[in-house]
Amino acid sequence: MPKKTILCVDDEEMILSCLREQLADHFGDQYQYELAESAEEALEVIDELSEENVEILIIISDWLMPEMKGDEFLITVHQKFPHIIKVLLTGQADEQAIQRAKKEANLFSCLHKPWNAQELIKTIQSGIANL
After folding, report:
1. What is the pLDDT of residues 37-65, one digit of tens each?
2. Cα 107 from Cα 94, distance rounded (Å)
3. What CATH code is carried by the domain that includes residue 51?
């Protein structure tokens, strides 16, 4: 049976590596960690995992990305997969975008860069507990 997945989306490879490392350090091999460098790539990953019946528990997404902003991406995901917990991780999202994501994507939490690893882990644990 495939592991449940946490998907991280950010256009900076260093951020993705750091997220994966922090998640793996805490959760170990309890979850599968998928990374995407753009919203478009993330949507492809989500479709592939969905076809393989792999459950995505949480998406952690940057806001400021080329092509599609994080709030738009999370709203798109929410329309097809409303059960996925959505977290915005940003250093630059404006309050309007955050409110829009809360309203239209059922945004669970917004963490600001640079984030605190303990806060990230607590947010994920809390999100999973809400499933």
Report:
1. 999 999 999 999 999 999 999 999 999 99
2. 14
3. 3.40.50.2300
